[in-house]
Amino acid sequence: MTSRRPLLAALLIALTAMAIWPSGAWSAEPKPKPYRIYMALWRGWEEAAQGFKDYFTNQNIPVELIIRDAGQDKSKLKDFVAEAKRLEVDLVFTWGTTVSEEMLGRLDTVAADKHITEIPAVFAIVSQPLGSMVKDFASSGRNITGTTYLVPTETQANLIQSYRPFKRLGVVFNPLERNAQVAIGEFSEVGAKAGFEVISRSVDLVDGKPNPASIPAKVAELKKAKVDFLYIPPDTFLNVNRDILTGAALEQGIPTFAAGENPVLTSKAMFGGVYRYYTVGQLTAYKAEQILVHKIKPAEIPIDAPKRLSIIINMPVVRQLGLYPPMKLLGLAEVIDPTEGKGK
Amino acid sequence: MTLDHTRPLFIRLLLLAFIVLVPPVGLLAHGALGEFARGLVPEMDKKAETVGRDLASSIERAIGYGIPLDKLQGMDEFFAPVLAANREIRYLAVTDRDNRILFINGAMPELLTPYFSVTDFEGGGSRKSLIGDFVNLAQPLMSKGVVVGHVQVGLDQDYVQSRLMEIAVDIGVMTLCSLLVSVEILLFIVTFNVIGPIRAVSTVMDRVRRGDFGYTCGVISDDEVGRFVHGFNGAIRHVDGLFRRLEAYMDEIKTAHFDKTVVGRVMDIEARVRFLFRFSRTGQPEVINEHQATDIRLPLFLFVFAEEMSRSFMPLFIRDLYTPSTGLDQEMAIALPIAVFMFFIAAVSPSAAMISARKGSRRVFLIGLLPATVGFFMSGLADNVFDLTLWRSLTAIGYALVTMACQSYIAQAAQRESRAQGLGVYVGAVLTASICGTGIGGVLAERVGYRATFVLAAALSVVAGLLIYRLMDAAQPKAEPLSPRKREFLALLRNWRFFALVTFAAIPSKIALTGFFFFLVPLTLLQTPGYDLGDIARIMMMYPISVVLLSPLAARLADKMGWKAGLVAVGGLIGGFGLLLPVLSGDFNVLGVSIALLGVSHGLSASPQLAIIPDICWTECRNMGQTNVLAFLRLAERVGSVIGPFLAAAFIPIYGISGAVIALGAVVLGMSVVFALLSFAYGSGPHIEAELAE
Amino acid sequence: MEKVGPTSTAAAASGLPPSRPVRWSLVRKVTLALVTILLCTLLVSGFFAYYKFESVYSSLVQSRYSFVVFTIKKRVEDNLNLGLALRQLRQVQDVLEREKTRDPQVIAVEVFDARGEVLFDTDRGAIGSKVPQDLIEAIRGGSSQAFGTTDEDNLIVGLPLVNNLGKVEGGVVLRYPAVYVNHGVTGLLLHLLKTGAEELAVFSALAALGLYVLFGGVGRKLTGMEHTLNAVMASGGSALPGGDGFETHFAEFVAKSREAVEHIRDATEEVGRLDRLQ
């Protein structure tokens, strides 16, 4: 009896399969071997990694994910490279600028013994891949491809313009962080062409550290300078102190636009335009699919950002300011409105 | 009613046909348009309601977020794409609870305020009301269960009207085509049953009036004419029979009578009878068959109709067949079958003319139909460009044979009448077929597809063959004067006036025809949004129509004023100018005008081009025969027919399709200007200096 | 024109052949041709009008439904952009069902994934089934233009669903009955058939009448001339020259024939006399 059992079970499975799938030939195929992907992360499992994983689930692509977290420790990355090579995985996913540069190598330093070169790789959340990681966004010129996640300055400026035309854009920034200053420089360039002015105020330093208490005064100064919008740059200090910043702006009646999602989602910025990490993760997985399933060479897959920007509008702030979004933007946007008891 | 002047009979018949055909179609169309309107309006209301509901739900969402209705932002940008995508919607507006217009796009608020202020939109669901020329649909905006305003969707009644106009124009064009076809058929029926037999009777009657009883009429039919001819022939045969008896009697006397004086007297009587009357020498009256130029008109019409059916879509069909693997550019691939078709016509026509002179028109017509029919049929089955090119060349060979057979038939039949009248029959049939074939072919192709249209063309060509086979008896072959040798033709080119006419007038006009009209027009028109095949075909009908309208006028002008070179020059300039028109007006929608101008150009210059030949080639016409000189002109201008598509194809990669029209126009206009300048030096009257120069 | 006796006796007396029966008179022939042409013209313009209307009407219906499909597409794509998988968008089912209740003509609205598996459907039983291959083909390009196809008795309009990666995630299609369009145009077809038939009858009669006037004269004149010919040939007399050249010539022809008959008869008698004299 025992010998007949597996046979019976197989028959049962086959019959069930045939009932589900009209074509019998389909069911006869063995379940395809999963693709093995080595995921190297920098600061734990977050949205981009989740988006990457969900994509395969949604698309019914069988994958085996080998997940490694560096925990912001650069020294671990060397071992990751060795492990990925030893496991002979099908693809490597790298999260963040540091992980990507260390594991895949910069254009000028890449070496077959220290970096992943034979195994195709995709990177995500790399701030400035052009020039450092890839020669050209159309083609990396290497066995890698990936995604960008920063919204181009011009796109951000256009987005603000489409909400309301403006002449003066105010920025409060931390003089110790480069990111914000880069953004201010780029905005000034765009503004010269588009016809707006960027007015910036740096946060006061106390003991070589930026003082959050000085933020409201800086916002008031900007109000005096008659800025139309306050721009919140991607800046760690401001992100931490977002409640102070957006609260001050709201008090002064200045609408705020944030380059990141946190000030809008969890604070009082009026609206923002971002590429969601989750979407970026999905797009990265889409590129991985091209490599693994459709056998396209990574060098032939362009490096780009998601097609559509996520526009987030904070409705209570809008109502408080009385500065209503245009219908078209409203139609495209994701609206945060906790008072109405619905997210959409 | 007169029998020797059958023209009035035919005109009355046409009048009757017009009275019988046009009003019913008009009534039918009128009733149909009413039904159209009744059917379209509710559907448009539904569409407006759908659009209104969607807009309302977007606005309700915004209101739901606490945005006051009058504070909505960016309404223009919100409404504009909806208006652009839905042509039948004239305006979109939002009104508040007091029906004040808060936002509006597409119409002046002043226009609507007076209506809105007195209209009550309350009451659930969408409300329809008539406001001036608009049908207004109000869709309530709800917020927290209360109506806070309305979305107003204005439907343009003119839109319905203009759609109905389009349909009416379509039906009108179709009616015109069927009217022309019915004219052809009626003409054929009347010619075949009445005019032809009466003319044959007249011929025989004329002989009898002069005492010649040697001929009877070869007309057999079941109608009154047949019966009359039967009686008529019976009388002749009766007389002939009496004579035969007398003749036999006299022969008997002459051989057997012993009395020489009696024989002498009988011979006197015989001489007297034979002096007064003539009888056939073959023992019975010979049958006379009258050939009418118009006999061949219907078969010719049907055949050309078959060919013209593909006119409006040929380049589009080739483009569909094109695959890059053939090693040809797409443009060249499209040009190839068109140019090869022209080439084969040019190459086969001269020998086709000779063959039909030798073998008889009927046989050559039937022979030519064979490759043509196979060509039509197989073109419909072609699956690549080369395939199609092969079948099109077969059609071209058939086309050359058939048209030459018809020309030679008409030339023989029309000897009694003027040659010009005979040519009129030919050109008339070809042009009417061109008008109807282009129009109906396009509509058919739109309805049943390119391939089925080709199959239908093959079927029509078979019908033409059946007509010829059943109704036309073998014409007597007639020996033509030997065609001159090639060297003499080359001598023709030394006549600078002839050379200029060929190079700068005849060739560019063919380049414009095949390069622009046959090749670029369908491609360009298809790029225009909203044009379907039927529209393209209707626009292309402008060409033969303007030729038809202008040719007789130009012929009369050329005859009366003797201003032939001038007409040719003016025609060329108009055609070239027409092609450049799009660049001058900056709008490619005027292509229809360009096509009409090309028709004007060819209508003006075609017959003066031929009429001028006796003047400028006086010597050559005497030496070689005018027919041969004209034939050489025809042959030489076909160089332009072959070049045209290739030239157009060469321009497309450089300037784009629209640019190619302009470039081709520049070439044509440039050459026409050269001819216009030269034409001033033509002088008038016959020129004989070519002879002096020898 | 003079008429002498019935034709048959005259013909018999003159030795002329019996006259040929008229099987198809001119009037009948040309009437048949003209009525056939009228019928064809009415058919052609009627069917042309019908098809034209059908195309305008069905494109209007299609444009309305593609607008509906477009609004669904927008809603679904907005949700996709939030990063949710198509099959997880439970609220889509409600959206579809709401659209169906709004328009009773709508047979079904369904959303399927890129492989063709139906994820949401107003016909809940169909969820999980596969859509036909042509729909999967149609969404492949990710075109923003609505596509239209048919399936048995239904017309289908659809649009691909594209996520913000630019990838086609699936499609949304709306089925509405072909009968709906047919129903809208049947009225016209009936109208066309009815008026077409009426007009055919009226104008055929008119054509017959007109042609009787036009060709009846020709026929009568020819018959009259034939009678005259027979009469003159049989018993002498002469044809009166008629109103036109043809008739004048005919009178001359008759006279000449008569003259020839008499002359030959005289000559025959003379020869006979000479023959008998001896």
From TrEMBL, chain A:
Any matching Pfam family: ABC_sub_bind
Keywords noted in UniProt: Signal
Alphabetized InterPro entries for the sequence: ABC_transpt-TYRBP-like, Peripla_BP_I
Signal peptide: 1-19
Keyword Cell division: no
SUPFAM superfamilies: Periplasmic binding protein-like I (SSF53822)
Highest taxon listed in the record's lineage: Bacteria
Record-linked PANTHER family: ABC TRANSPORTER, SUBSTRATE-BINDING LIPOPROTEIN, ABC TRANSPORTER, SUBSTRATE-BINDING LIPOPROTEIN-RELATED
Protein name: ABC transporter substrate-binding protein
UniProtKB/TrEMBL annotation, chain B:
GO molecular function, one term: transmembrane transporter activity
Signal peptide extent: none
Recorded topology in the membrane: Multi-pass membrane protein
Cited InterPro entries: HAMP_dom (IPR003660), MFS (IPR011701), MFS_dom (IPR020846), MFS_trans_sf (IPR036259), MFS_Vesicular_Transporter (IPR050930)
Domain of life of the native organism: Bacteria
Cited Gene3D superfamilies: 6.10.340.10, MFS general substrate transporter like domains
Keywords: Membrane, Transmembrane, Transmembrane helix, Transport
Protein name, per record: MFS transporter permease
Lineage: Bacteria, Pseudomonadati, Pseudomonadota, Alphaproteobacteria, Rhodospirillales
Residue span, HAMP domain: 192-244
A biological process term (GO) from this entry: signal transduction
Record's subcellular location: Membrane
Domain Major facilitator superfamily (MFS) profile: 292-684
Xref: Pfam families: MFS_1 (PF07690)
Transmembrane segment boundaries: 338-357, 364-382, 388-411, 423-444, 450-469, 496-521, 541-558, 565-584, 590-614, 635-655, 661-682
GO cellular component terms, semicolon-separated: membrane
From TrEMBL, chain C:
Transmembrane domains' residue ranges: 30-51, 200-218
Keywords: Membrane, Transmembrane, Transmembrane helix
UniProt keyword annotation of Transmembrane present: yes
Listed name of the protein: Single cache domain-containing protein
Record lineage: Bacteria, Pseudomonadati, Pseudomonadota, Alphaproteobacteria, Rhodospirillales
